[in-house]
Design a protein that fits this description.
Number of helices: 3
Strand content: under 5%
Number of strands: 0
Order of helices and strands: HHH
Largest sheet: none
Structural class: mainly alpha
Number of domains: 1
Distance between the termini: 33 Å
Amino acid sequence: MAVIQMYAANLGTLTWTEAAVAAGYSEAFGSHVRRKRKTLLPELDRRAAAQAHTEARLARQPLGG
């Protein structure tokens, strides 16, 4: 996820391999993330939606339980 975040934060200025190195990973890992992003992004979206749902549910609970 750090490589995707680094790439997105520097969109247009970093390649996938450069983003991996900037995030502390190898160039090869950057290429791997580039190829896997089609399967990774839907999973990240699913996790974000689940987190938002949980936070909203917890915000509706009365104090103390």
